[in-house]
Amino acid sequence: MVTGLISLTLLVFPTQAFAGNTLVLSTEKYTATPHTMLMNAIITEALKRLGYKTVLRRLPSKRALYEANSGEVDGNFLRNSSLSHNYPNLIMVPEPITHISMVAFSKHEDIRVNGWNSLLPLRVVWIRGWQICENKLVNARKISRVNNVDQLFNFLEEDRADVGIFIKELGVETLREMRIKNIHPLLAPIYEYDLFLYLHKKHAKIVPQVAETLHAMKEDGTFQALRDRIQRQQSDH
To answer: CATH class for domain 99-191?
Structure first.
């Protein structure tokens, strides 16, 4: 079911960047959910309007960034606005694709979250390459890093950590896909921010055009139309 839905929005090939009018973008290796399908569809449509075919490489977070920064692929998504500080070859497309909340997930609903410091006495797990967690949680009681969200939730299932840091909406959808019912997002977001597409500096000349196209898609209703289409596809299956 999931494979069929993804194929409607994105071409996926495990190859290096193609010449011509194809852009290869790396992204984190998430379980396919309505949210990830929507993000893929938005970026694919924006680049299509500019004459580009989109090819996606799903990789562990840190490797996805490395390949984008080195120019092995043409860009990376979805990332926050501070990425260029550590990856200077990547240029942010200055039009947000989505706004998200980062939360702590746990089996223990009695844990009270009030900002990053409230997590320091706990055993914490996050996805390797998430720089904000590295900055804020390096002094937690015990820290663990995993390669993807499936591993993160399995880590919590096995009681190897007290909390796992992840995106609320995508995490809830992933738990549903994994049929895990005893892990929940804890109240109070730790951090809220916009997410962006980044392109390698070799594509600097098209960054303003991509930003303008994404903005136009919000104004002309394309974002909502894509969301509605994916919701219909989900209900049909």
So the answer is: alpha beta
Parse the chain into domains and list their residue ranges.
2-98+194-236, 99-191
Using the structure block, give the residue that is written with the tokens 């804890």: 186
Q: What's the Cα-to-Cα distance from 14 to each of 11, 56, 149, rounded to whole Å?
A: 10, 8, 20
pLDDT digit string, tens, across residues 100-113 = 899 999 999 999 99
Q: Are strands 184-185 and 22-28 parallel, antiparallel or unpaired?
A: unpaired
Number of C-alpha atoms within 13 angstroms, CB side, residue 229? 15
Rounded CA separation 44/7 (Å):
12
CA angle 215, 216, 222 (to 5 degrees): 105
Q: What six digits make up the tokens of 91?
A: 């240029």
What whole-number distance in Å separates Cα of residue 104 and Cα of residue 116?
A: 10
CA dist 100 → 31, 49, 204 (Å): 17, 26, 26
Fold designation for 2-98+194-236:
D-Maltodextrin-Binding Protein; domain 2 (3.40.190)
pTM of the model: 0.71
The residue with tokens 């139309």 is 225
